[in-house]
Structure formats: C-alpha cells, structure tokens
Amino acid sequence: MRSGYDTEELIAALATPWGESALAVIRTSGTGSIEKVASVFKGNKDITKLPGYSLTFGMLRDGEKAVDQVVLGIYRAPKSYTGEDMVEIFCHGSLPGIQAVMELLHKAGFRDSQPGEFTMRSFLNGKVDLTKAEAVNELILSKSRQAQVLALDRLSGSIFDAIDQAKHFLADILAAVEIQLDYAEDEADPAAGFDMEKLDKAADILSRLAATYQVGKLYKEGIRIALAGRTNAGKSKLFNLFLKEDRSIVSDIKGTTRDYIESSVAVKGIPAVLIDTAGFRSSDDPVEAEGIRRSNMVIENADIILYLVDGSEGLTPEDEAFIKEHPCIPLWNKIDKTDAAAPEGFVPISAATGAGFDGLEELIYTKAMGSRRLDTGEAVIDSQRQKDLIDRSLDAIGKVKIGMAAQMPLDVVAVDLEEAVNALGELTGEITSSDILENMFSRFCVGK
Ligand SMILES: Nc1nc2c(ncn2[C@@H]2O[C@H](COP(=O)(O)OP(=O)(O)O)[C@@H](O)[C@H]2O)c(=O)[nH]1
Ligand SMILES: [Mg+2]
Fold first, then answer.
1. Could you report the per-residue pLDDT of 77-130, keeping only the tens digit for each?
2. If we measure between CA atoms, which residue out of 153, 95, 141, 142 comes closest to residue 115?
3. With 90 as the cut, is the pLDDT of residue 281 above it?
4. How many CB atoms lie within 10 A of CB 435?
5. What atom in ligand 1 is closest to the CA of residue 231?
6. Which atom of ligand 1 sits closest to the CA of residue 249?
7. Which of 236, 237, 277, 353 for a ligand 1 pocket mutation test, highest count of atoms within 8 Å of Cβ?
8. How many C-beta neighbours within 10 Å does residue 123 have?
C-alpha cells in the first residue's frame, strides 16, 4: 500500500483556520515547489530567481484569470520549516478565495497535505528530533499560558537534552562492555570496566523525567471543576468571577440556570473547564428537572467540586448531606452580607466582591497538583509515548543492575543495556519505523 505521506510529492495546506478573516496563509513544500508556484504567479519579480527569506507581491493566475492578489514568502532548502523548498502564500481570507487558491495549487501539481506532514518532513530532514516535533503540536494545542510555556521549553530541546545525556551515559557503558566482551580474557573480572555510577546517573535523569509526566498530563488535559449548591447560593456569580465576564445569568429568581454551562479558564496556570450547574431544587417543570438531572451527572464526573452555601441563609440538612457524600471544597459565600462565621472546613468568600477568591484559587491549585511538583526550569513531558519509552528504558536499566549484582555473564547484561539505549533512540526518533511516525503525526493539525 502506498503511504499517504509520500515525501517525493509536493504538498499544500491551509495553515490558518477555515473561516473568513483578513488574511489566510497557505503553505506549500517540496522539491520544485517554488517553480510550481511560479507557474501560476505573476509579479514584478521572477520568484525562481529569488533567494530564501524573500517576500514578494503579485497575482496568482489561472491562465488569464486572476485568482487572488497575494504576498509570497520564499524559503530555500535547507533553511525552511520542512528543510525543503517552500512557498508560503498570504492571501485574502475569504472562503471562496481560499478555495480558488487551493484548486489552483492542485492544478499546478500540489496535493493536500496529511495531518502533521510538514513537521514530519522537518523530522525526516533532520531539522528536529521527535520530542521537538511533538512539542510543536503540544504548543498549538496548549490550553493555558503555563502549558504553552512548558511546550515551548520542549520545543527548544529541554527533553531532547536530558534524554541525550542519559543516552550518552548508557552508550559509554555499552561501549566499555563490548570492549570487554571482545578482548578480555575469560578470567577477567566482568565488572572491571563497568561504570555503575554512570548507570545510576542515567537512571536518575530518566526517573526525574518520568515523574514529571503527571504534571505534564495535568497541564495538557486540565481539570473539570463543577460548581454545585442550592439555588441562589451564588454559583453563577462565582462562575462569572472565574471568567471575569458575565457569561452565566445571575439572578435571584430561583431556577435561572436550567441546564449547565461550561467555559475554559486557567486556575494559576492549570487549564480547567468550569461548569455552572442548575441548583438543587426539586421541580415539577420537566425542563428544569432534566437540567437538574444533567447537573448531577456533571457533578459526579468533576475532578473538583466547589459546593456553595449562602452564608447569609446558613446550612441546611440538604447542604450537610451533600458535603458528607461528596469529596468537595465547601464554600461559605456572601460574606459581604453576613457576619455569620464560616463553619469549620468552609472557605469564606464573596462572589460579589471577590473577597477570598485568591485563596480559593490557591486551594484548587494545591488540590489539582496533589503530590505532583513543578520545579522551575525543569523539563516536563506530557506525551504518553515518551513516558512509555522512558519506562521501558528504566526497566531495562533495572535488569542490568540485577544482572550485574547476580554476576551474570556480560553478554547477557549487554542485551539489556542495548534495550535501554534503543528505547531512548526510539524516543528521539533515531530508531523509528514509518508506521510509528505516521501514527504519531496523524494526530497533528493539517498545515503543521
Ligand atoms: N451580596 C452578595 N450577593 C451575592 C453573592 N453571590 C451571589 N449573590 C446574589 O445572589 C443571587 C443568586 O446568585 P446566582 O449566582 O444567580 O445563584 P445561583 O442560583 O447559585 O447560580 C443573585 O442576586 C446574586 O447577585 C455574594 O457573594 N454577595
Ligand atoms: Mg445559577
């Protein structure tokens, strides 16, 4: 079967969202792409003669017919994103216009790119290793500024550097072991050339990286926070405070929020989906009853439940029952309008004035992080693929240690050492099959 990622072919894709906008960017790549675009372009300059990193203005034409007025960005191999000749087309962002440009490119000999195909070519041409390639996608998909900073760090090579260091330690040991195997006398001490300290250093680097996965996953996937509580406790008011805008209807008419609504926020850098639910209140109105049923479902599925109580009204048996049955953060709301002290374990806040809100965010952060830690400047992984390969390498290192302690023959130990090195080679992409690559890049956006 022919792969959809044939690197001999010329590819094109819309790199900006499919929607009306001032400008749209269409990317093309491949050997001969500049000449192909030149065949449908008329400007003051002959783009086949332009050096890399030039911009030029002109008209895309289908024979005599004008297609769009554009600016072209010319890149020449190997100094481009993919490492190939590339032309980026800045055209007008009208849907029929974008479509016309794409059709023109198809006519000229380009095909639509597969997801992640530009980055895959960049990898195949040695511009990036796999950890950086994955970081490109993570950067695009990051849901909070902190998540974006972590991905940017990976893009500049923080993970690659750590893996590379560990791999060098392991490769040094392997080389020494192989020399022993080749030259040492039968009676030589097999442990003589074996640098246990290097093995420990490699294991240490890898264990630290593996431990960051839980943090990485948290920043990648985020958490779900549900607001619960009786009607009029102030859930919608608090929801809006998180959003810093009036999204949810706040009203003292009971049952205003009939269904649930959700919105993306960041709580101290952790991406979160915040869900405002319909209050608990039995209702004869079938629509409202359905809203309440759905709300209950949302609450059961949340990672963190904030349970609001109107402090000016006090605790009811219903509140107490909920708090007893659910792991939640109980909030004592409306402290601006009551002197009643918050009961033990409650967080006093005012959704109206914002009093106590910083402390609440702090508490959510602590709860979400749990035992995880994020040290400044530390490389953080958020890819399951990377985590699995680091674990595989660590397992193999464990076997090496056991083998050495049990004074196993060196050639047996060498097999595990090789496995430890290979897992890391697969991680950065030195050893990778095309199936694994296509599977990985197919999860990317088209145009990246
Ligand atoms: N004074 C005061 N009023 C609040 C506070 N939080 C909510 N309210 C008011 O309580 C009423 C019900 O609020 P709402 O957010 O709609 O409650 P929900 O039913 O739980 O969503 C509205 O009139 C809000 O303005 C607060 O912290 N202080
Ligand atoms: Mg409400």
1. 999 999 999 999 999 999 999 999 999 999 999 999 999 999 999 999 999 999
2. 141
3. no
4. 9
5. 19
6. 16
7. 237
8. 23
Query: What is the per-residue pLDDT across 159-193, written as a single tens digit (0 to 9) for each?
Result: 999 999 999 999 999 998 888 887 766 555 666 67
Q: Which two tokens stand for residue 84?
A: 């190939």
Environment class of 58 (CB within 10 Å of its CB; exposed 0-12, middle 13-18, buried 19+) = middle
Q: Counting every residue, how long is the chain?
A: 448
* pLDDT of 397 over the 50 cut: yes
From the CB of residue 338, how many other CB atoms can be counted at a distance below 10 Å? Answer: 17
Please say whether the beta carbons of 276 and 300 come within 8 A: no
Residues with CB under 6 A from ligand 1: 229, 231-237, 250-252, 256-257, 279, 333-334, 336-337, 350-352
pTM exceeds cut of 0.85: no
Q: Per-residue confidence at 432, pLDDT binned at 50, 70, 90?
A: confident
What are the chain's domains? 11-128 (3.30.1360.120), 134-212+379-429 (1.20.120.430), 220-369 (3.40.50.300)
